[in-house]
Amino acid sequence: MPWNTPGPAVTDNRMTMAPVPRQPLRTDRLLLRPTKAADAARAFEIQSDWEVTRMLAQASFPPDRQEIERWFADHPNEWAAGSAYRFAVVLDGRMAGLVDVDGIGGGAGSLGYWFERAAWGRGYAFEAARAVTRFVSGDVGLVKLVAGHAQDNPASGRVLAKLGFRRVDTVDLFSRSRNEYISQCRYDRLDER
Ligand SMILES: CC(C)(COP(=O)(O)OP(=O)(O)OC[C@H]1O[C@@H](n2cnc3c(N)ncnc32)[C@H](O)[C@@H]1OP(=O)(O)O)[C@@H](O)C(=O)NCCC(=O)NCCS
């Protein structure tokens, strides 16, 4: 069973909900706006930093510009289909990172995030991810989120703990960026209705 497949008690709220408008989210310090194709250039820059991309198990390193462009170009379709909601995090007018929930199905989805190194250590990941988890819980109607991080990425584990995620287990996962198996710590969060 895929990791983010929910148990039988979880219902698929998308069956009864109208499409979710593409809308920005605002926090005290950040603007989060739905991603657009032009964001690919900044994403390529950010993922050209090994310290960022080594923590992203599905990303290639060095990053592949065309693959990233194709990925961003598809984001509006994913949003329309309700399969993924991805936000560019804008700081001082510039994209500093991305927070998304993808793999959506059966009322569940998978949370992810990455930021340029210059933005680390100021609480931005937590602040942005909290806005996105509230959005998918409130506006989209998801009732379960899953997430994971490499064992050597305690900062991400701390972000998840602050968001109320519960550590579930640790599995071996192939990291595309590192080209080797890593220990991946997996988490979930159930939202009561
Ligand atoms: C992981 C990442 C998103 C964190 O971003 P951030 O904006 O620095 O995160 P925050 O400031 O919101 O929170 C980080 C927390 O981790 C803590 N932390 C940082 N480094 C740590 C370490 N080595 N050990 C333990 N805790 C650590 C911070 O103190 C903070 O906790 P606090 O608020 O209780 O003090 C960022 O480092 C990043 O983009 N890394 C590369 C990509 C990545 O790892 N993405 C996640 C993949 S699972």
Furnish the topology, listing elements before pairings.
Layout: E1 25-26, E2 31-34, H1 40-47, H2 50-53, H3 65-81, E3 85-91, E4 94-105, E5 108-115, H4 124-140, E6 144-150, H5 154-162, E7 166-175, E8 180-190
Helix pairs in contact: 1-3
Q: Could you give the count of β-strands?
A: 8
Low-confidence stretches: 1-15
Radius of gyration: 16 Å
Summarize model confidence as the mean pLDDT: 92
Morphology: globular
Bound molecules: coenzyme A
Question: How many structural domains does the protein architecture include?
Answer: 1
Characterize the biggest β-sheet: 8 strands, mixed
Describe this structure in words.
By secondary structure, this protein is an alpha+beta fold. It has a single domain, classed as Aminopeptidase (3-Layer(aba) Sandwich). 28% of the residues lie in helices and 32% in strands. The protein contains five helices and eight strands, in the order ββαααβββαβαββ. It has helices spanning 40-47, 50-53, 65-81, 124-140, 154-162, and strands spanning 25-26, 31-34, 85-91, 94-105, 108-115, 144-150, 166-175, 180-190. Strands 1-2-3-4-5-6-8-7 form an eight-stranded mixed beta sheet, sandwiched between helices. α4 links the parallel β5 and β6. α1 (40-47) crosses α3. The longest helix has 17 residues, at 65-81. The protein is globular, with a radius of gyration of 16 Å. 32% of the residues are buried. Coenzyme A binds next to β5, α4 and α5.
